[in-house]
Amino acid sequence: MAPLSLYGVANTLVSTLLLHLAAVLPAPLSTLASNSGLITALSVLLFGAILLGASLLNTILLIWFERKMLGRFMDRRGAMHVGYAGLLQNFADGLKLFRKHTFKPRDADGLGFFSAPTAYMVTSIVMFGILPISTGWNSGSLPLSLLLALVVFSFAPLFIFLGAWSSANKYSLIGGMRSAAQMIAYEVPILLAVVAVILLSGSFDLSTIVAEQRNYWFWGPLFLALLVFVAGMLAEMERIPFDLPEAEAELVEGWNTEYGGMLFAFFMLADYARALVGSYLIVLLFLGGWTMPGWVPAPLTNFPLAGILWFQVKTYLVFGVFIWVRASLPRVRTDQLLRVGWMRMIPLALLSIVLAALVVLAKCLPVFGCVPSVGG
Amino acid sequence: MSEMWINMGPQHPMTHGLWNLRVKIDGEIVLDVDPEMGYLHRGIEKISEDRHYNEIITLMDRTCYVAGIAWEHLFILAAEQALHVEPPERALWIRMLSEEFQRVASHLMWYAAFVQDIGLMSPFLYGMRDRDLVLDLFQSYTGGRLTYEYMRVGGVRNDLPPGFAEQARKVCDWLLDRFVEYDRLCSGSDIFHRRCDDLGVVKAQDCIRLGITGPMLRSAGVPRDLRKDRPYAAYDRVDFDVATAETADVTGRYVVRMEELRQSVRIIRQALDWLDKNPGPVMADNVPRWMGAPYAPVGREGYLLKREYPKGVGFSAIEEPHGEALAYVVNEGGEHPYRVKLKSPVFVNLSAARHYLVGYRVADIPPIMGSVDICVGEVDR
Questions:
Q1: Which domain holds residue B153?
Q2: Does B10 map to a domain?
Q3: Contact assignment for A74 to B191 by CB distance below 8 Å
Q4: What's the whole-model pTM score?
Q5: What's the complex ipTM?
């Protein structure tokens, strides 16, 4: 039996349904229902819907996780009343925002103002289709999926700046400028850190990168790159200590000051989707993705969907560290952030590339008896 | 980006109240600032001219909503001088105890707001939680948590309840433990120093020239504290040190306030010991019952009686949590003061904003203004 895959499940569901339909429908419709092209198209749609739903649910769960964890760090309980331990609180909040009037400031530019949240949301959610969360749970094996993921991930400053500029608000504008400067500055060290991973794994394909980590996870040899990547991700996600684009003490709410109701909810959800995606990337690139080390007893890794489970556990642990950082660090200043980005992160990232190259070379030594995987 | 003016306020997270800081910026650099106050003006001084002394105490609580009892104390000291009333010894100590508790509560409130300004999330709630313990103590002997109406001309309204001292000592021990953690969370953090060192510097001679008082002045290395320099209540009979720092920046103000918290706890402990050993009356004998009793002016007819008070002028100066507060009360013989004048330390500290904001960055404004410890209630009065 082929390994369980999401597309396989969707395909089976759709073709079974259409087969039954073809049996009861009259002639012209029944040939249409058994058309293989239609089956494929519907399967892809169903696959996308399931992936989208699961990812958004996971994002909302992540928000709940942050609220609870942050609450504990602050000696309080977090959301408690809607659903068990406040699990449904975010749905209640979402409903409340949904009911709100969608408001546009008089001087704001309508096209930019309304398209920015949508575009921001879309680029964040598309990431879920690109990143594999277990074998069979992505949209197929893309040979350059890592590159694609990083490209889509780096669209964000454009839309943030679009939204900030068209809001016609000085706070938004300053926040948008900060955000763009920060994201572009940290894009570079992130990409350089990823180069180290690519060197070591010899592939741009995230599934291959995870597969390459079956013997050892990359955070060991690439510890420096992991540090750079995590710091860069904190900046990309705009979380404390790098949340200065929305530094509420001076900029009210930064680039989304003028957004309210559902538009704000879009930004909020997309922010957390990006946080989830960032944690996914860290797990995929450095923490072995859905693989587990050999010493973990087989019953814990052998059951169906074990890969997804372990992947999520790792993701939430990574995000837990982000929450921990958020609970205990103050916010840095823009110039300090940029100075750290350009003058510390980039040299560190370059150093990590050199280290990765050395590791690859060391693997060629006859002592280890391995063949280099570069280019393979 | 070209130069532009932005309004930080009257409703803005940085302001901690209702005032407006107009800032002229070029990119992220602050070129000019213009503080605008007056949004919260309630005319407390003018209303006081039409109120009985007991009723003015209520107004004083509202003057500064985080240090109500300190302002009661300020007014009562001036009023007693104007009315020639001498409070009993025990009342002085209870007032001192109350003021120090208020200082702890006010500084904890400042701590909570200040760390929020630099982006620290958790200590905000730690500060508020520990302030609650102090408010619980206030509630146990004044009945109020924010506005107390506790002090009276000639003493205080009621004595401390039984068991208060043990509870207060427990809170003191707990607080001293917590201050260590506060320090570790803030001054132990590298980012904190990056954000706060050499920020909003006002040197000692500038402070004196501008009339800046309180922790801001002491952070510039001037050991001026009215509790030492012009002792009132029983401050000349307790041991404590005046906290100072040399750096004159935001970190310096932080250090001074954290040390003041410790010194306040030290004073509180001495006051509790003294109060344990020296029971006695808490109201002076020579004031009428309706002046100090818990049930102040009785009935409508109380107002109809023509009361004669001695003529007099009273002046008082106390070291309020935010700085030096002064009060001047003139009594022309009626049952209301002829004139009440209050001087708010924060008004002066805030008016000097141009001297410690220009040249820094927009992101520096919240920590600098946070370190001033603004209470708009007393600024506008």
A1: 37-352+365-380
A2: no
A3: no
A4: 0.84
A5: 0.78
